[in-house]
Amino acid sequence: MKIKYIIYLAFISLISLTAFAQTQKTVDSIQQIIQQQKAYPKKISVLQDHLKKIYQKDFDATIQLSKWGLELAKVENDKVNQGEFLRYIGLSYGKKGKIDSASVFYYQALSLLEKSGNSEKLGLLYDDMARMYRKLKQPKRALEFYDKALKLYENENNLEGIARINNESGVVFRDDFQDYKEANIRFEKSLRIQQQRNDSVGIGYALEFLGYNQLLIKDYKKSESYLKQALEIRKKLDDDFALMLNYTALGEFYKETNQHQLSNEYFEQSNVLARKIKFTDIQKYNYEQITGNYEALGNYQKAFESLKSFNVLNDSLYTAQKLKDVEDISTKYETAEKENQILQQQAKLTNRNFWIFGLVALVVIIGLMGFLFYKQQVLKNLREKQENEMKLALQKIENQNKLQEQRLSISRDLHDNIGAQLSFIISAIDTIKYYVKDKDENLIGRLSNIGSFAKETIQELRDTIWAMNKQGITIKDLESRIANFIEKAKQSQSDTQIELQIADDVSETEVFTGIQGLNIFRIIQEATNNAFKYAEANQIEILISKENSALKFQVKDDGKGFQESEIEPGNGLLNMRKRALELNSELKLQSEMGKGTEVNFIVNC
After folding, report:
1. What is the pLDDT of residues 284-342, one digit of tens each?
2. How far is CA 525 from CA 137, 447, 450, 522, 552, in A?
3. Contact 150, 169 (CB under 8 A)
4. How many CA atoms lie within 13 A of 74 on its CB side?
5. Which residue has the higher pLDDT, 280 or 364?
6. Mean pLDDT of 49-62
């Protein structure tokens, strides 16, 4: 048994190395072709032509080439193509099942393309983001992005885009809202447009969607006809992705009509193509259906083998942490957009004030020159000036109050809704543990882990609410928050001494924004937790000092240390680096075996 396992691992490793070598060969070949082009526009055009050919088949090559193209576009300050390459990177990570990474690149692309005015590339991005939220089972959010894309395409009379969005949004109505009538209307509209355009690829997709819709409403004759038509079209095209989807749809049809052996044949054909293009999502789904077919056939050994394959793939895909990361990224982007709108409004008010003061000055000069003749008019102008200044002051106060009310409202919603729900989850887990007792230690352990995760999430939620409720966070606020954290930490790690030291030249009134303050606290918290968990330290020091005109934050321990090059960086270290970047800083990590670890970063005041 061990020999078989070793042979299996060797076989998998050989396949992985072969795939890596093939990917690198593709990347090198395309880069050589592009480097032969002298003009930047020609380089970008040739690169994007190649990406369109490989992005459905070789995700790793697409990521490497897109990152390379992104650097080319940055040198030329080409925002449109920066956004396009970021979109390709996000698309490829999504197809690899790394949905959290995909969302990071999608939102970076969104911030560039929404300002660019390029409706074609922005429409493609909206479409990709809608598909991402479909996979995350957030249909309302998916339809929001589909509607944005459709509006762009209709304004440009882009028939291909209109047809594609009708197909994909129809799937949302079909799968998430069970509105088969609306879904059918959209699929048929897409088919008419693609037939008008004589687009074989588009016709194939529309026929497949119609066939699956008929299957759900149990019109089996029409369903099989549509799916077989789509299959014949796709066999003539060099499109492994579309053919893979068609095999899966036929597998579902024959499963529904109790032809289980034939159903499994189509699912297996789909898996061959899915493995070829490294599309984990569809493999997971196919194995789930194959398991059901074998159960129906009474072949439980095969069913068990398929179920194991499904579980391996499922564990690698959409975990709770990935879903949380996507929501964090979405929230950051939407919050940034709101704050940007407020800043634009304040800029307009400042500009308006400038013109008002200029006009008033002109009136005063004219009034002085003709004081004897226009005294009454000057007095009237002065009254108007005072009224305008009063209105502007009141408007500014009102805007600030509205912003604070919005922050308080969001904080209350977070506390009352999400906080209450998490507390209910913790209570429910404790109740389940009480009834299970010692019957299943493994289950008790998992429930304890879930409960701990929920408690940590509540604490993070409280820290976020703390930051949102403050218009500015001072060094004194940070000191108080860090002190609370230290006291709680000491309860679980009583053998480790923790000290917080603030240099005498650091003013307690130094102020940060809520987002800056939260990022500083999170980095210190994560660095201290890492020292607790892994360093086996006897003493931890948290230092805040002045460095020129900036503030320096340090977390030092006397633990066992480590070599950063010899460890796999986890989410904690990556998150600290991202937060430092958001502070326009760089996280520096110094560690030696047996000599402890120091984490530091600098924030400009």
Report:
1. 999 999 999 999 999 988 888 888 888 888 766 554 445 445 555 555 555 555 555 54
2. 33, 25, 21, 5, 15
3. yes
4. 9
5. 280
6. 87
Angle 371-413/441-468 helices, nearest 10 degrees?
A: 170
Mean pLDDT, all residues of the chain? 80
Is pLDDT at 404 greater than 80 in this prediction? no
CA angle (578, 584, 588) in 5-degree steps:
65
Q: Per-residue b/e over 510-531, b at no fewer than 16 CB within 10 Å?
A: bebebbbbbbbbbbbbbbbebb
In whole angstroms, give the CA distance from residue 428 to residue 264.
40
Q: What secondary structure, in 3-state letters, does 37-76 show?
A: CCCHHHHHHHHHHHHHHHCCCCHHHHHHHHHHHHHHHHHC
DSSP 252-314: HHHHHTT-HHHHHHHHHHHHHHHHHTT-HHHHHHHHHHHHHHHHHHT-HHHHHHHHHHHHHHH
Residue 279: what pLDDT? 84
Residue 14 pLDDT level (bands cut at 50, 70, 90):
very low
Is the pLDDT at 20 greater than 50, yes or no? yes
Closest by CA to 559, choosing from 540, 584, 586, is: 540
Look up residue 386 and give its two tokens.
């005072």
* Confidence (pTM): 0.45
Lowest mean pLDDT among 45-49, 191-195, 334-338, 592-596: 334-338
How far apart CA 199 and CA 193 sit, in angstroms, is: 9
Q: 567: which DSSP letter?
A: S
User: What is the residue whose two structure tokens read 């129906």?
Assistant: 296
Bridge partners for 474 per DSSP: 511
Burial 551-582 (b: 16+ CB within 10 A, else e): bbbbbbbbbbbeeeeeeeeeeebebbbebbee
CB 330 within 8 A of CB 100: no
Question: What count of Cα atoms within 13 Å lies in the side-chain half-sphere of residue 538?
Answer: 3
Q: Pairing relation of β-strands 539-547 and 550-557?
A: antiparallel
The answer to whether the beta carbons of residues 492 and 456 sit under 8 Å apart is no
What pLDDT digit, counting tens, does each position of 446-504 carry?
Answer: 666 676 666 666 666 666 666 666 667 888 888 888 888 888 777 766 678 889 999 98
DSSP-based three-state secondary structure for 338 = helix
CA–CA distance, 123 with 352 (Å, rounded to integer): 35
In terms of DSSP bridges, do strands 597-604 and 550-557 run parallel, antiparallel, or are they unpaired?
antiparallel
What is the amino acid identity at position 71?
E
